[in-house]
TrEMBL record:
Biased composition (Polar residues): 294-303, 336-346
Topology of this chain in the membrane: Multi-pass membrane protein
Family: Belongs to the EamA transporter family.
PANTHER family xrefs: EAMA DOMAIN-CONTAINING PROTEIN (PTHR32322:SF2), INNER MEMBRANE TRANSPORTER (PTHR32322)
Subcellular compartments: Membrane
Listed Basic residues bias regions: 357-368
Annotated GO CC locations: membrane
Segments forming domain EamA: 10-134, 145-278
Start and end residues of each stretch annotated as Disordered: 284-368
Name of this protein: Probable blue pigment (Indigoidine) exporter
Organism of derivation: Micromonospora sediminicola
Keyword annotations of the record: Membrane, Transmembrane, Transmembrane helix
Low complexity composition-biased segments: 304-322
Length: 368
């Protein structure tokens, strides 16, 4: 339990750090170069981690690292910037908060796992709470912005579920896998930024400070913590923590920029925080699959001991049943000579362990 709480706390630091992106971008970075900001944010951080870890992908992980980098970085960053430029910040934040719902659907489709009731309730309540915090009456609904926001959210949701499904190669740490994805994603953004925005901007002092924060803390550290949590925790529990990003942005806007937080925003904070707490509670999925008994245990429970008795309590149960049958059928039914007339097909062959009759029925395993 202590390890799980520490995993949740460390994972939560990632969206909290991402929540500073809005303030840093608005105050320090060039306003007209979002794609270059994404490339500068991802690629140097990935190259730095790659230089520190000195491990390259091998085998199937070349393709997996490229796909995860495209989903989590290469597609997510540009789509996020398109949504942010074409939609009010509140609308874009709510689209990002829908990620837990998409993760629930992908968890069922890809992992064949049904999330429990707490996870389902949290997936619905989190975007509702975020909506109360960030949405305003004049929020626009630009179709292209909505499509980009939903596509970016779906890309990162798929990346999160696939990260949970594939884990990482044996003997390879989280920083190494993070470096692969950042490099792959940054290399995908680079030509798009050059084609759309032209030459990279010449950064000034504040921009260098902003890029350093977003690259080292908001990307290298934050994504390492996020991927670590994705490998250790259920995807539904990780995704609901993403609501901390817009909540952090709203809090910084109130503290630094003097933005107002009324009763509706405070109520939304309470709903979103409660959803995140609810999402971390363990819950059994209704009708979900049962865990298969390990093969070694199944063999041990079905194979009799050398004395011909099933191990453990099975022999006692069989003996008790035999006594009851004898008492009901009379002494002749339990005569030793009658047991010797049993067909040889029912007798164990020499050199093979006898199969216990009490374990003849196979263990039922749910097909779901």
């Amino acid at each position: 339990m202590t390890h799980r709480r520490s995993d949740v706390a460390l994972t939560a630091l990632a969206p909290i750090t991402w929540g500073t992106t809005y303030l840093v971008t608005a105050e320090l970075l060039p306003a007209d170069r979002p794609l270059w900001s994404g490339a500068v944010r991802a690629l140097p951080a990935g190259l730095l981690l790659l230089a520190l870890t000195r491990r390259r992908p091998h085998g199937v992980w070349w393709g997996r690292a490229a796909l995860l980098g495209a989903l989590n970085i290469g597609a997510f960053f540009p789509l996020l910037f398109v949504a942010a430029y074409r939609l009010p910040g509140g609308t874009a934040a709510v689209l990002g908060a829908v990620q837990p719902l998409l993760v629930v659907a992908l968890t069922v489709a890809l992992l064949r796992d049904r999330p429990g009731r707490p996870a389902l309730l949290a997936a619905v309540a989190a975007p509702a709470g975020v909506g109360l915090v960030v949405l305003r009456p004049d929020a626009g609904l630009d179709p292209l912005g909505l499509a980009a926001g939903l596509a970016g959210t779906a890309a990162m949701a798929a990346g999160l579920v696939l990260t949970r499904r594939w884990g990482r190669p044996s003997g390879v740490g989280t920083l190494t896998v993070t470096s692969w994805q950042l490099v792959a994603g940054g290399l995908l953004i680079l030509p798009v930024a050059a084609a759309v925005e032209g030459a990279p901007p010449a950064p000034d002092g504040p921009a260098l400070l902003g890029y350093a924060w977003l690259g080292l803390v908001g990307t290298a550290l934050a994504y390492a913590l996020w991927f670590r949590g994705a490998a250790r925790l259920p995807a539904t529990r990780v995704s609901v923590l993403g609501a901390l990003s817009p909540l952090t942005a709203a809090t910084l806007g109130w503290l630094v920029l003097g933005e107002a937080l009324g009763p509706a925003q405070l109520a939304g904070f309470a709903v979103a925080v409660a959803a995140m707490v609810l999402g971390q509670l363990p819950g059994r999925a209704g009708g979900g699959r049962r865990h298969r008994q390990p093969a070694s245990n199944r063999r041990q429970s079905s194979v009799a001991t050398p004395s011909g008795r099933a191990p453990g309590g099975s022999s006692a149960a069989a003996a008790n049943g035999s006594v009851k049958r004898c008492a009901a059928a009379g002494p002749a039914a339990c005569d030793r000579s009658s047991s010797q007339r049993t067909s040889s097909a029912d007798q164990p062959r020499p050199g093979r362990a006898a199969i216990s009759r009490t374990r003849r029925r196979p263990t039922r395993v749910s097909s779901s």
